[in-house]
Amino acid sequence: MSTMALSRRGWWPWVRRAATWGFFALIAWLLVRQARTIDWGEVFDAIRALPAVALLAAGALAACSFALYSTYDLLGRYLTRHRLATGTVMGVTFISYAFNLNLGSLVGGVAFRYRLYSRLGLANETIARVLGFSMLTNWLGYLVVAGAAFLFWPMTLPPGWKIDNEGLRMLGAMLLMVALAYLVLCAVSKGRVWRVRGHAFRTPGLAMALLQLAMSCTNWSLIGGVIWFLLQGQVGYPQVLAVLLVAAVAGVVTHVPAGLGVLEAVFVALLSHEVPETQLLGALLAYRGLYYLLPLVVAVLGYLVTEARARRLRVAGR
């Protein structure tokens, strides 16, 4: 290996790390700058003014969403044939999802699953297959729901935006084509093994793919319903759902834990021309409380219980 190549290997990681932190600093600065322009007193007044019926309806949909998402890993159990009980699998999935929302996918979605499943006796290869299939299920539904929303109900964009409804329709059609390609693959290549970074993944059948699709589409639709109820119908449900889907991708791209500030920035950018900013932020803060913080409290308790149960199983197995 040349001296130049060795030198590049030495400085390039530092440059990449500096660029990453610089990007995060820029995002933080922009968010703080925007936050200073907001009348937070009016925002909290908007939260207090939310009707109990809207809060109860949003809370019920949030509970349904978490219950449904908690079944995702059951699909992985079916594929891998591991023997953990249904309640245990759903508990691990719930805990991981709550931490994923609040701390990011690497900490919640990945690290907590590996930690809890390995403590419960699953091998790393099995955990990887369960995790990979759960993530695939989640984003497959995203493709279909976002594709349908953009294609059939394109959102009303603020004046001056460069992309128009036709651009959104084209994007929606592309997303639906990707999802359709997955269904076709499952129909024609059932059982084929794919290897990605040393991990083997087997193509499910069409029936399983359709089940993934139904579960994930329903879940994304429920999440959109939570925000729609908190906005009290001031904006049409398809538009709220479309903005949520844009915000979800923005949160993934920026890698900000819990999409903190990113979710709010996207909603303000796309809906503040239809809903007063203080009411919009009030609804979104209520959404964070119902869908992020409250489940996190339950997940912390569940994590402690699961750790204690795993410890008892190890002691009993000695």
Write up what this structure looks like.
There is one protein chain. The protein is mostly helical. It has one domain (51-317). Helix content is 78%, strand content 3%. The protein is built from twelve helices and two strands. A two-stranded antiparallel sheet has the order 1-2. Helix 4 (72-80) packs across helix 5, helix 6 runs antiparallel to helix 7 (124-152) and helix 7 (124-152) crosses helix 8. It is globular and about 60 Å long. The chain starts with a helix and ends with a helix. The relative contact order is 0.13.
Question: Which structural traits does this protein have?
Answer:
mainly alpha; two-stranded antiparallel ribbon; 318 residues; 2 strands; 78% helix; 12 helices
Question: What's the SSE blueprint?
Answer:
Layout: H1 3-35, H2 40-48, H3 52-69, H4 72-80, H5 86-103, H6 106-119, H7 124-152, H8 165-188, E1 193-196, E2 199-202, H9 206-230, H10 237-254, H11 262-271, H12 277-317
Antiparallel strand pairs: 1-2
Helix pairs in contact: 2-12, 3-9, 3-12, 4-5, 4-7, 5-6, 5-12, 6-7, 7-8, 7-9, 7-10, 9-10, 10-11, 11-12
Mean pLDDT: 82
Major beta sheet summary: 2 strands, antiparallel
Overall form? globular
Number of discrete domains: 1
Order of helices and strands: HHHHHHHHEEHHHH
Number of distinct helices:
12
Structural class designation: mainly alpha
* Helicity range: over 70%
How big is the Rg? Answer: 22 Å
